[in-house]
Design brief:
four-stranded antiparallel beta sheet, globular, alpha+beta
Length: about 350
């Protein structure tokens, strides 16, 4: 899935509902919520000196951001000013894919004394964060031309491998978005060996993770990309991010990154969004709980709201006419449905009582 700007256009058009078929983690209702994370960093809220960007969290370009270049209280972090120093790093100062991006150093294993032992034993440890860039939205007519992947070890909050490669295509109708000329994809380069290594990363993973996974997963098993049978987790649809991060119910990957203090840049390539998610996961003290809740079984739910209440459904991430005509719908777990301010009912069980009130 090219998440970023390309995936946001899919979300806004309401095209293609995510069809995740994820596996449950077992006895999840026994899990207590962990405490919320540290103070929120959002585009609309200024960062104080106590929330200054540290050297271990900085994006390395030709010159690393030092602690003496910490974000001052008078410099707000916005989408155009991801990291404020004496000279702001903005989207106009794009970091290219040829420039190395440093991820946080591995952390010590996170202590989880409150997690149920059986649930912890079923928790996926090896996450393969995936993103795709494609020539269009329709897999029947378009093709994947780039794959990015990061193998992430959840208990250690550590990146084990980063990988991206181009796939040859004849044309690219989405060049204005991903800025990948078709002729570049046809240059002599070892894309077959890239596929082989990508398969090795797939084999090592317990769980496949993507932002708008419903888009990315549809390209696998088509053209050169291998079919995959492992479970998927969508960081846009399946994870309910902490309230103190002040995110929309279905946030963009860039909004998610900024909410966790991750600098963003203008480059729109497959590996970029993978890096954003890896950085977010590295900062999540409650990552295990988010994963376990995100893997709970989901059903397509219809919002029971009047016309005057339609804003409630929209704010909760429900979509109108997608995929059911004349209805606000979204795939939710029973846990997620119970937290809503309005009633919902499963689409395939309309005769049952509403699941929440």
């Amino acid at each position: 899935m090219g998440a970023g700007e390309y995936k946001q256009s899919i979300d806004e058009l309401g095209v293609g509902e995510a069809k995740q078929h994820l596996f449950g983690a077992g006895q999840l209702d026994l899990l207590p919520d962990l405490n919320a994370e540290e103070a929120v960093v959002t585009p609309s809220k200024a960062v104080s000196t106590s929330e200054a960007v540290s050297t271990s969290e900085a994006v390395s370009t030709s010159e690393a951001v030092s602690t003496s270049e910490a974000v001052s209280t008078s410099e707000a972090v916005s989408t155009s000013e991801a990291v404020s120093t004496s000279e702001a790093v903005s989207t106009s100062e794009a970091v290219t894919t040829s420039e190395a991006v440093s991820l946080p150093q591995p952390h010590a294993p996170v202590a989880l004394p409150s997690l149920h032992r059986e649930a912890l034993s079923s928790l996926p440890e090896m996450l393969l964060i995936i993103d795709t860039e494609t020539t269009g939205l329709d897999p029947k007519r378009s093709h994947c031309l780039e794959v990015g992947a990061i193998l992430f070890h959840a208990p250690q909050r550590a990146v084990l491998a980063q990988h991206s490669f181009l796939l040859p295509v004849e044309t690219n109708a989405a060049e204005s978005i991903n800025r990948i000329p078709a002729e570049v994809t046809r240059l002599d380069q070892p894309w077959r060996q890239g596929l082989d290594y990508f398969q090795a990363l797939l084999d090592a993973a317990d769980l496949l993770v993507a932002h708008n996974a419903g888009f990315d997963r549809q390209w696998f098993g088509k053209d050169q990309l291998p079919a995959v049978s492992k479970p998927w987790l969508c960081t846009m649809e399946d994870i309910t991010w902490p309230v103190d991060r002040q995110l929309r119910s279905r946030p963009s990957v860039r909004d998610l990154a900024l909410a966790y203090g991750v600098p963003v840049w203008a480059a729109h390539r497959a590996l970029t969004d993978c890096i954003y998610l890896a950085e977010v996961f590295a900062r999540c003290k409650d990552l295990e709980t988010l994963l376990l809740h995100g893997l709970e079984p989901r059903r397509l739910m219809r919002a029971q709201v009047s016309y005057a209440q339609r804003h409630l459904a929209k704010e909760a991430g429900f979509r109108w006419n997608d995929p059911i005509q004349g209805a606000w719908t979204r795939r939710l777990s029973d846990r997620g449905a119970a937290k809503l301010e309005f009633e919902v009912v499963a689409i395939d069980q309309q005769e049952e009582q509403p699941l929440s009130a």
